[in-house]
Amino acid sequence: MPFVGDDPAHAGTARRAVRCQFTAWRVPEEQSDDLVLVVSELVANALTHACDRARPCPRRVWVVAGRHPGAALVAVVDNGTYDARRLRPLPADNSATHGRGLRIVAQLSDRWGHFAHPQGTCVWAARDLCGQSLPGPADR
58: cis peptide before it, omega within 30°? Predict the structure, then answer.
C-alpha cells in the first residue's frame, strides 16, 4: 500500500500511483478517472479527520488500488478512530465550504463503504466495469 503520511501534498502521489496501476490493469478511463477523484476525496478526509483526542497526530494514511473480475476499487486507511456516525454523506449545502467529500464518493462509485481496520479506519469505493473482467497475470 502506498503510504501517504500526513502531508496533503502527498495526495498527488497517491493519485498518480492509483492511475498508473489502473492503466497497467487496463481499467477503462471513465472508471479510472472516477476512482482517482475518489482517492483525492478520501485522502483529504483522512488527513482532515484522522487525528482526534483518542489518537493524536501524527496522521498516517495508506492507499490501495484493487481489482476483481468486473470491478475496480480503491481503499484509504487512516490511523483515526473508527466512528461510523461520521462516515455518512452530509446533506447538500451549496453554501458550505467543506463537507462534500463523501457525497462525491457516493456519486462517483457504484458501491462504497467503511469498516474498522487494525490501523484505524478504512473507507473503500468500487466501480463496476460494465460486465468486462480485467486481465489477470496470465493474460499479459
Answer: yes
CA 97, 42, 35, 92: dihedral to nearest 10 degrees? -30
**Grid coordinates in use for 97?**
465550504
Of 116, 109, 114, 96, which is closest to residue 38 (Cα–Cα)? Answer: 109
**Single-letter amino acid, residue 38:** V
Cβ contacts of 50 within 8 Å, gap of 6 or more = 59, 60, 61, 78, 79, 80, 120, 121
pTM higher than 0.70: yes
**All three cell numbers of 76:** 484509504
pLDDT tens-digit map of 54-76: 656 667 888 999 988 889 999 99
Q: What is the pLDDT of residues 109-132, one digit of tens each?
A: 999 998 988 888 899 999 999 765
